């Protein structure tokens, strides 16, 4: 991109060119604000650009995991499958960028290293690997799942074979045929990729720390009748989804397991297993809040695992023991079936921890000779992209330090001490506990409206108040405390990374969140403070 005076002093700098960054750019450009997007990759797409592993797929139906801001776009675009694969989502995001002429305002291969608020000028000074920018607003569209967690295993750096990561998968085709391959981790990415990889490799060694619940996607070609029906009433369809707890069409169960006949429950769960994917978890309204109801659903899935996996010992290892849904529920295509293959071997890390990695092997209960090692060890979720660089607010406070005991944010949009900084799907918003595409659009629309309101009302600086932030995070935790989410160790509360503060971060409940957001806006951005003099 050609740098000129305007682009180095834009009104707004957006960091990240994923789903969030590109829509934010579109909105602000339409408002006439000079805006630049800084993206460290040489491509846009964020998640869908980085995570190119075989089997990478969205587990929210395509007709829901798509932008809704432009009626013509949603009518014109046709998805080929019920659940879209990574290549098709990436193609879609590129289509959006081209269609709305966004590419020329994105600077690629430009990583933000530091963002510092200047209290004299009330401007953000943003330092990248290429340039220095000065902007009034700085918007972090850096993603909730964009900083991979590298496991601390002795000898990992000495491994001389092919080292891959699901979250940095190479663009060129990776030929694993005939190889001995190990994969560490059994979260969502691993559950998607294992059935694909197993078809080609000589041996696949799956190193599992925690088993996961997974529901079959029952993916297939897009049903043209369903597509036509949705397209004939897209606005209404989106509204219906948004009124459900997790913002999903299928998540609409209102009955309680505790009040139902157990045979009826089991046949309903059977139907959900065969049709609902992620919606399985919301199939009954009490699964997330009542441990007994949760046990019924968890037992149902454990029974399925025992039915599918022929070797009882392997089946037992694959059965999770915690509350279903407390960790991100997974959706798969033939995951449990894959463990019936003779070339797939499950190693339980609790009974057989990895002692060390050698140049060409992994040493656990025995020595596994491998050609390729795949890391599928998750992410520094929700905060990693914001704490891995220096974001410096008032009085030299670094965001990473402010969040040492746990991230706090008002509505997941603003942070006290960090004026004119917005985060898209930040901690304290539904984000990862919702369909993220509409959650991102909701935040982008809100930020754009807020900036527009500030311009109309001659306000220069916005900042979340500490009191509002504290009160908000108390509510986040209070709601989580009523559910099985809080008591389950997961990346929602930082439990996947030993050194991370254990704090529950997503807001549970899209409709309540939406109400709160509207209330804040209609009360002139209650909880935010404007034009506070510099201390
Ligand atoms: C494997 C996988 C599967 C997923 N499946 C689903 C799903 O089924 N349903 C769902 O709702 N969500 C899913 N998600 C969540 C997904 O991340 C969101 O749906 C959405 O794509 C997030 O978009 P984003 O723009 O907010 O962030 P991202 O897509 O993460 O984009 C952030 C961008 O910021 C860039 N960036 C970060 N830091 C810097 C920096 N310092 N300087 C410059 N650039 C920077 C990154 O390179 C990246 O391009 C999945 C995530 C993963 C990883």
Distance between the termini: 37 Å
Percentage of residues in helical conformation: 25-40%
Radius of gyration: 23 Å
| CATH superfamily grouping of the largest domain | FAD/NAD(P)-binding domain
CATH architecture label of the largest domain = 3-Layer(bba) Sandwich
Low-confidence stretches: none
User: How many domains, as an integer?
Assistant: 2
Strand content: 15-25%
Got a strand count? 21
Task: Tell me the major beta sheet.
Answer: 5 strands, parallel
Mean pLDDT: 95
User: Going across the major beta sheet, what is the strand order?
Assistant: 3-2-1-7-19
Structure description:
The protein is an alpha/beta fold and 535 residues long. The protein is built from 17 helices and 21 strands. It has two domains: 12-147 and 381-527, 3-Layer(bba) Sandwich (FAD/NAD(P)-binding domain), CATH 3.50.50; 149-212 and 327-378, 3-Layer(bba) Sandwich (FAD/NAD(P)-binding domain), CATH 3.50.50. The protein has a five-stranded parallel β-sheet, covered by helices on one side. Helix 2 packs parallel to helix 15 and helix 10 runs antiparallel to helix 11 (312-318). The longest helix is centred in the C-terminal third of the chain and has 21 residues, at 436-456. 48% of the residues are buried. Flavin-adenine dinucleotide binds at residues 15-21, 38-41, 46-47, 51, 56, 58-60, 65, 111-112, 141-146, 189, 385, 389, 424-425, 435-436, 440. Residues 15-21, 38-41, 46-47, 51, 56, 58-60, 65, 111-112, 141-146, 189, 385, 389, 424-425, 435-436, 440 line the site of flavin-adenine dinucleotide.
């Amino acid at each position: 991109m050609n740098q000129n005076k305007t682009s180095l002093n834009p009104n707004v700098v957006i960091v990240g060119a994923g789903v969030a960054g590109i829509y934010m750019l579109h909105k602000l450009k339409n408002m006439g604000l000079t805006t630049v997007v800084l993206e460290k990759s040489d491509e846009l797409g964020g998640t869908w650009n980085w995570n190119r592993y075989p089997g990478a797929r969205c587990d929210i139906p395509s007709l829901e995991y798509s932008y809704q801001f432009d009626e013509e776009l949603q009518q014109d675009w046709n998805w080929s499958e019920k659940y879209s694969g990574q290549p098709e989502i990436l193609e879609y995001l590129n289509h959006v960028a081209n269609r709305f002429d966004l590419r020329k305002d994105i600077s690629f291969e430009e990583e933000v290293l530091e963002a510092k608020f200047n209290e004299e000028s009330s401007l953000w000074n943003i330092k990248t690997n290429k340039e220095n920018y000065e902007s009034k607003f700085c918007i972090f569209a850096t993603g909730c799942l964009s900083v991979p967690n590298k496991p601390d295993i002795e000898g990992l750096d000495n491994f001389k074979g092919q080292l891959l990561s699901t979250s940095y998968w190479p663009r060129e085709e990776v030929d694993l045929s005939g190889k001995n391959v190990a994969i560490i981790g059994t979260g969502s990415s691993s559950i998607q990729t294992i059935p694909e990889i197993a078809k080609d490799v000589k041996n696949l060694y799956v190193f599992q720390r925690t088993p996961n619940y997974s529901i079959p996607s029952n993916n297939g070609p897009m049903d043209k009748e369903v597509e036509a029906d949705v397209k004939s009433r897209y606005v209404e369809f989106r509204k219906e989804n948004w009124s459900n707890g997790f913002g999903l069409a299928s998540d609409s169960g209102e009955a309680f397991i505790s009040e139902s006949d157990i045979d009826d429950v089991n046949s309903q769960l059977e139907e959900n297993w065969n049709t609902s994917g992620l919606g399985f978890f919301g199939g009954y309204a009490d699964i997330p809040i009542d441990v007994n109801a949760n046990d019924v659903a968890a037992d149902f899935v454990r029974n399925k695992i025992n039915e599918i996996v022929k070797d009882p010992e392997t089946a037992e290892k694959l059965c999770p023991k915690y509350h279903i849904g407390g960790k991100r529920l997974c959706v798969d295509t033939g995951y449990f079936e894959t463990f019936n293959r003779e070339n797939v071997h499950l190693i339980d890390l609790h009974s057989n921890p990895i002692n060390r990695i050698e140049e060409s092997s992994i040493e656990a209960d025995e020595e596994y000779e491998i050609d390729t090692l795949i890391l599928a060890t998750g992410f520094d979720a929700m905060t990693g992209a914001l704490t891995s660089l220096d974001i410096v607010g008032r009085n030299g406070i670094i965001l990473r330090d402010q969040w040492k005991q746990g991230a706090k944010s008002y509505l997941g949009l603003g942070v006290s001490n960090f004026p004119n900084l917005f985060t898209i799907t930040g901690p304290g918003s539904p984000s990862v506990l919702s369909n993220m595409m509409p959650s991102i659009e909701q935040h982008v629309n809100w930020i754009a409206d807020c900036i527009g309101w500030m311009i109309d009302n001659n306000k220069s600086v916005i900042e979340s108040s500490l009191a509002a932030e504290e009160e908000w995070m108390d509510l986040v935790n209070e709601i989580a405390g009523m559910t099985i989410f809080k008591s389950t160790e997961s990346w929602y509360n930082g439990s996947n990374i030993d050194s991370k503060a254990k704090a529950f971060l997503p807001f549970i409940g899209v409709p309540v969140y939406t109400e709160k957001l509207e209330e804040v806006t209609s009360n002139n951005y209650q909880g935010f403070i404007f034009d506070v003099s510099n201390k």
